[in-house]
């Protein structure tokens, strides 16, 4: 997609939502999968918000709240610590803005997508705890601590293929501390998407709560979902796994290979899933925060190692998805889409291999103080006016406002499927707020 670097005025009457639709059609064709009917981007194929002669958007036929999406990139040079720090900051800000001292990330989002280490974070924050209160396993602060203590086992295995079995046993032990042997995708509080790459079919595979509630053939144990999305192909090869009923088998490698930035997949899932998100007609009906995990310093060498190519490809695809999503949001990018990313960590040749966890946490803290380069529709790119930290604090306020707006809405923004315990059948319950 060509980037327009010169500012150009938007013609009066220009339909930004139609442009957004075209951009997501391209994303669907190039990066996504499993969604075959592009008409499902709209509620009935025609009723999308359109500009009035004055240039303002007509909201269309229906009024409901905005669907709130959390997307977390694969580990990147910070091994997921940038996203984990951002989530801890966001949760703290949500508690202050809402006045609810035990508020958690899952209370204020309707769907989470995470790839690689980001998938592990999403699983920690959106899987039900075993206390019967309907609360998540971890708070964001607890997830940050868990990742900091276990990042080497999850993200940085030794580069020796013969250690594969010990590597898998190590990861199994780490996730086994958190997820019971019985917990599956059905045991998540909200819709969850976690990608990997299936060598058996030669394509991306997304672990999805919505699919798991339809049939046990797409339900997988949470500890295996975490193992699959974080599997490093340079060191462990593929992870053979099967669904809870044994009918679906995959040979998984990490989500960073298939989809290092799952934001586009999350958006497409919402816009196509009319059963759970009945009034999500276009980007104007979404609120999205996308958390990156840092871009490393350029390697500066002409013959990168195979592992470097994996990193370069992952960071390149992540940035491309961010640019495409920014373009799709058009003139709503500043209010409906927030991207948190950091730059310039490591020496380029071995960005974080020798860095201690303390050094990486300090680097993540500094990245939150950075101002990022942002892609703007018809205006090329510019430096953000806000730091990552300021954007997170602002977005927390918007999430709380959305929660309050839903209390007065007659339309359910989200109609979540609910699983019958240990059954493949699913029932439907309507909710107009996230609680």
TrEMBL record:
<dbReference type="InterPro" id="IPR002641">
    <property type="entry name" value="PNPLA_dom"/>
</dbReference>
<dbReference type="GO" id="GO:0016042">
    <property type="term" value="P:lipid catabolic process"/>
</dbReference>
<protein>
    <recommendedName>
        <fullName>Patatin</fullName>
        <ecNumber>3.1.1.-</ecNumber>
    </recommendedName>
</protein>
<comment type="function">
    <text>Lipolytic acyl hydrolase (LAH).</text>
</comment>
<dbReference type="GO" id="GO:0016787">
    <property type="term" value="F:hydrolase activity"/>
</dbReference>
<dbReference type="Pfam" id="PF01734">
    <property type="entry name" value="Patatin"/>
</dbReference>
<dbReference type="InterPro" id="IPR016035">
    <property type="entry name" value="Acyl_Trfase/lysoPLipase"/>
</dbReference>
<keyword id="KW-0378">Hydrolase</keyword>
<comment type="similarity">
    <text>Belongs to the patatin family.</text>
</comment>
<keyword id="KW-0442">Lipid degradation</keyword>
<feature type="domain" description="PNPLA">
    <location>
        <begin position="70"/>
        <end position="267"/>
    </location>
</feature>
<keyword id="KW-0443">Lipid metabolism</keyword>
